[in-house]
């Protein structure tokens, strides 16, 4: 039930003729409370018993009666009924009937009972207005005018929700009457036309009143329409936090809140000029080149700049962005501010590449730039993360990189570093990785403390109509799982767009949670500039041909408002065109394409000035036994006081301690020693994956849990040395694609960390195949940047079925090979089934595959790896000697007895974490061929 508080004085009659100002003056400003009173026809203040001291009592009585008339004494029931029924001042009170019933008291009771319908109407009307306001808050977005083309409903539903009382355009009386009739007949509200001019107190859950606490119904509806049914559709009522809902209501309902100064309008116009003229310039110069232009959503540039400006104002100084193809060049030029000549020269097909890296640079590679934000006058670093064609694959990578940057600068609350993710409407709705990434957003070891998502919702996916592309009303519905507010906005209303972007950035800095801006726009050309969209969307494109560009519309508006004049506008255009022309002239001087200019993570200190790694050598990896013993002792102890561990774990730790004494190690202890020694050298380690804290096989136990105190844990690895690097070990959500992408992004931020992702079973890595195929394997060749991520893929022949028994390491070898004529086969004779051209699997494929793949890997690994404790023969000695000589070789452990087998895939390398050049040597030595595409270290 609502919080019912008011004062008896408010039980006065209230009519539209009364100034609502008077009422608002009586009302305390904060906290806002709910006042359900509407109209009493008798001034109860005139009652003799209503003295000042009794008013609170009366007030309580009144609300109790409103809820349940039987809950108060009969005399109060009669009084309130009479007052409501219009009894004259002083007559509402009736003394209780005498014990002996008389005819007169009977007739009096009858009079009172007849008052009942008025009371009911009062309560019903009050609830009706409540419900009406709530209906707009929940469903107003369904009737907001979001499509600039005016042909498709953004929610794919043309019907108006049954409980929204009016049409969207105006408070047209005819439409209103009809709707009201339908709703009245349908029994929704029980209001009728005569109620339109009655004044209602507003509940605390709305801000439409501004400084007024009561409004006529007509005005209530008008204001609700202004707030929820114009060019902004706000979806937020699924959020189950009252403060957050109130915050949003205040931002959108407060009358006149969407105001812009002339200066702000001119800045917005100038940004639209840049965005629009940039695409026009590219079109003029390279009319037959693909560029995935932004035409139809030019407002994206002011939108992003607004988010960045507001975030900078709130203290953010590093923004990491991820985006797909659409408008990427424009974002690089006008948001990140990459030099225009660097962009233009990418269109020159004769340009020779100075370094490694594949084609398609301009749509895929990233960028890193530090500059002054002109609006806030503060330094800001902007980084656009490289992305493959695979839509949305970069989402978790951006989040991981953001987390790493936050971690390394000690930004534990995300106040300094933030991420912005851009999406296409079809991809946002269709790609599962979006959902997996959202589910990382609030996990302690994965949160980036709020991401601003911007959807370029051009209402088409390549050639596919949204009605065939998704089953949800909006493409953004996936964001509802994390209670992110979603602001849909008509992209042809630049001020509305800028307004919601400001609110989104403020939301992020206030609540540190995700938020979505859905720019409902259109795509002026085909999917790329060479595509004919009329084949498949004839009607839409007929409308698009007629559509005035947003720049023109906004310029006309500002000129009509006198904010700018025509010559000023033309001058702005000429100024930017000149900038483009001059950059184009300079771009012709570029003879060589430097792909290293397109990097998103600079790795300061790692490269020489000419872009080469400072050192190609691996530092000595040897360790003394004293350190190993120390690590082993910590690994077998509980390094904090008064901490009760499980009895079973005590036995495990005791066994560990004995192994240390006996100079033997098992897999878990060897891992401990490898990690511990790196931590001593100041190398941060992050181990992430499903259940990695304990270890799937209950072997690791890196996090100890106090058996008596909830959430009290201890990570002994962080108690090794006084000045050691931190060790992060975190159980992840049950996702491979999302979490591996995240860790890859984390590893991207620094070459001086060891970042490991563990699959629960090795073969589960295939649900993260996209990250492996698109980012890890093509590493240097595609991205000009290697990555030290290490994949732990435990697998073994232990009766868990054919797929669980192998992590398919041979696939990594295959993916690291880019010679079309050679496969990494082991036998003397090339296997015809496995040659790349014309190779079709025959009936004997399993046998053949086994012939070259697994046994070969197995035998190679058996050669280089230490034995396990089950094969008592010198196992510990070998493991220790490995740990003592080269930690990079410690990891491959194979045992036919132990269930888990750890394999460091071709994808990963520890050398990166040791400062050597990834790719210089593989962890499994000869198992990984040396090849430019090989991404091992
Ligand atoms: C994972 C993946 N599947 C398919 C494609 C091929 N593809 C490229 S763009 C595109 C349509 C994308 O539509 P949308 O997300 O709405 O973005 P828009 O191009 O309209 O901006 C498709 C299917 C791809 N790049 N990635």
TrEMBL record:
Species annotation: Meleagris gallopavo
Biological process annotations from GO: glycolytic process; tricarboxylic acid cycle
One cellular component term from this protein's GO annotations in UniProt: oxoglutarate dehydrogenase complex
Protein name per its UniProtKB record: 2-oxoglutarate dehydrogenase complex component E1
Molecular functions per Gene Ontology: metal ion binding; oxoglutarate dehydrogenase (succinyl-transferring) activity; thiamine pyrophosphate binding
UniProt keyword list: Calcium, Glycolysis, Isopeptide bond, Magnesium, Metal-binding, Mitochondrion, Nucleus, Oxidoreductase, Thiamine pyrophosphate, Transit peptide, Ubl conjugation
UniProt EC number: 1.2.4.2
Catalyses which reaction(s): N(6)-[(R)-lipoyl]-L-lysyl-[protein] + 2-oxoglutarate + H(+) = N(6)-[(R)-S(8)-succinyldihydrolipoyl]-L-lysyl-[protein] + CO2
Matches recorded under SUPFAM superfamilies: Thiamin diphosphate-binding fold (THDP-binding)
Cofactor(s) the protein requires to work: Mg(2+); thiamine diphosphate
Protein's UniProt keywords contain Oxidoreductase: yes
Cellular compartment(s): Mitochondrion; Nucleus
InterPro entries named in the record: 2-oxogl_dehyd_N, 2oxoglutarate_DH_E1, DH_E1, THDP-binding, Transketolase-like_Pyr-bd
Pfam families assigned to the protein according to its UniProt record, in alphabetical order: 2-oxogl_dehyd_N (PF16078), E1_dh (PF00676), Transket_pyr (PF02779)
Family: Belongs to the alpha-ketoglutarate dehydrogenase family.
Domain Transketolase-like pyrimidine-binding: from-to ranges: 665-843
SMART domains, alphabetized: Transket_pyr
């Amino acid at each position: 039930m609502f919080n019912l508080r008011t004062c008896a004085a408010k039980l006065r009659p209230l009519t539209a003729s009364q100034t609502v100002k008077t009422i608002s003056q009586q009302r305390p400003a904060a906290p806002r409370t709910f006042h359900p009173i509407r109209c009493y026809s008798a001034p109860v203040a005139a009652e003799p018993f209503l003295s000042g001291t009794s008013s609170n009592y009366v007030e309580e009585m009144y609300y109790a009666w409103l809820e349940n008339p039987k809950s108060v004494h009969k005399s109060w029931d009669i009084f309130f009924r009479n007052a409501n029924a219009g009894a004259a001042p002083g007559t509402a009170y009736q003394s209780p009937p005498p014990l002996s019933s008389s005819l007169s008291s009977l007739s009096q009771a009858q009079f009172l009972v007849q008052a009942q319908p008025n009371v009911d109407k009062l309560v019903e009307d009050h609830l009706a207005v409540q419900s009406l306001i709530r209906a707009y808050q929940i469903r107003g977005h369904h009737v907001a005018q979001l499509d600039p083309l005016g042909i498709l409903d953004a929610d794919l539903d043309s019907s108006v929700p049954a409980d929204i009382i009016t049409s969207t355009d105006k408070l047209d009386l005819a439409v209103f009457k009809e709707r009201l009739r339908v709703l009245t007949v349908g029994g929704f509200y029980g209001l009728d036309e005569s109620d339109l001019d009655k004044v209602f107190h507003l509940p605390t859950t709305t801000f439409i009143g501004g400084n007024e606490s009561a409004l006529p119904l007509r005005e209530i509806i008008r204001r609700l329409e202004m707030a929820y049914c114009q060019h902004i559709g706000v979806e937020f009522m699924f959020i189950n936090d009252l403060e957050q809902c109130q915050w949003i209501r205040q931002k959108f309902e407060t009358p006149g809140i969407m105001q812009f100064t002339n200066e702000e309008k001119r800045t917005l116009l100038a940004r639209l000029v840049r965005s629009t003229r940039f695409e026009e310039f590219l079109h003029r110069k390279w009319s037959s080149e693909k560029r995935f232009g932004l035409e139809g959503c030019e407002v994206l540039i002011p939108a992003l700049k607004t988010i960045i400006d507001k975030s900078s104002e709130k203290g953010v100084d590093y923004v990491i962005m991820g985006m797909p193809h659409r408008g990427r060049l424009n974002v690089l030029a006008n948001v990140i501010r990459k030099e225009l000549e660097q962009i233009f020269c990418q269109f020159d097909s004769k340009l020779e590449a100075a370094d490694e890296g594949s084609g398609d640079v301009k749509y895929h590679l990233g960028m890193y730039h530090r500059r002054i934000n002109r609006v806030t006058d503060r330094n800001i670093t902007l980084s656009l993360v490289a992305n493959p064609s695979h839509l949305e694959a970069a989402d978790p990578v951006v989040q991981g990189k953001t987390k790493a940057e936050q971690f390394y600068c000690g930004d534990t609350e995300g106040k300094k570093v933030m991420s912005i993710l851009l999406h296409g409407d079809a991809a946002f709705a269709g790609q599962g990785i979006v959902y997996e990434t959202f589910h990382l957003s609030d996990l302690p070891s994965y949160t980036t403390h709020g991401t601003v998502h911007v959807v370029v919702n051009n209402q088409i996916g390549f050639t596919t109509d949204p009605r065939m592309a998704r089953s949800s009303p909006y493409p953004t519905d996936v964001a509802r799982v994390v209670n992110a507010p979603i602001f849909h906005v008509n992209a042809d209303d630049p001020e509305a767009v800028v307004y919601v972007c400001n609110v989104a950035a403020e939301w992020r800095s206030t609540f540190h949670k995700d938020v979505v801006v859905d720019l409902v726009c259109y795509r002026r050309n085909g999917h790329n500039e060479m595509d004919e969209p009329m084949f498949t969307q004839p009607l839409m494109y007929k409308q698009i041909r007629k559509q005035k560009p947003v720049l023109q519309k906004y310029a006309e508006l500002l000129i009509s408002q006198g904010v700018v004049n025509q010559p000023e506008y033309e001058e702005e255009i000429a100024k930017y065109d000149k900038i483009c022309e001059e950059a184009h002239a300079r771009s012709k001087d570029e003879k060589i394409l430097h792909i290293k200019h397109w990097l998103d993570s600079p790795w300061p200190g790692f490269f020489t000035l000419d872009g080469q790694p400072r050192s190609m050598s691996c530092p000595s990896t040897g360790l003394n036994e004293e350190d190993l013993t120390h690590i082993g002792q910590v690994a077998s102890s509980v390094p904090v006081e008064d901490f009760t561990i499980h009895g079973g774990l005590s036995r495990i730790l005791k066994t560990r301690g004995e192994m240390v004494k006996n100079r033997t190690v098992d897999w878990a202890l060897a891992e401990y020693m490898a990690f511990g020694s790196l931590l001593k050298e100041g190398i941060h380690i992050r181990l992430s994956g499903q259940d990695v804290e304990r270890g799937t096989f209950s072997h690791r136990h890196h996090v100890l849990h106090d058996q008596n105190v909830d959430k009290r844990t201890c990570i002994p690895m962080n108690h090794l040395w006084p000045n050691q690097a931190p060790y992060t070990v975190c159980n992840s959500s049950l996702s491979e694609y999302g979490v591996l992408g995240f860790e890859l992004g984390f590893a991207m931020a620094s070459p001086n960390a060891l970042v490991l992702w563990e699959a629960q079973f090795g073969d589960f890595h295939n649900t993260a195949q996209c990250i492996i195929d698109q980012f890890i394997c093509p590493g240097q060749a595609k991205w000009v940047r290697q990555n030290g991520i290490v994949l732990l893929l435990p697998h073994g022949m232990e009766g868990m079925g054919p797929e669980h028994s192998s992590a398919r390491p041979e696939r990594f070898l295959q993916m690291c090979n880019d010679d079309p004529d050679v496969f990494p086969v082991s036998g003397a004779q090339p296997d015809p089934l496995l040659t790349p051209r014309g190779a079709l699997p025959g009936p004997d494929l399993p046998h053949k595959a086994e012939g070259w793949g697994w046994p070969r890997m197995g035998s190679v690994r058996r050669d280089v790896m230490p034995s396990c404790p089950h094969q008592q023969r010198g196992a510990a000695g070998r493991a220790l000697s490995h740990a003592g000589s080269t930690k990079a070789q410690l990891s491959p452990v194979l045992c036919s007895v132990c269930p888990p087998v750890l394999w460091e895939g071709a994808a990963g390398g520890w050398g990166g974490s040791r400062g050597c050049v990834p790719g210089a040597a593989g962890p499994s030595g000869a198992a990984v061929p040396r090849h430019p595409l090989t991404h091992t270290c």
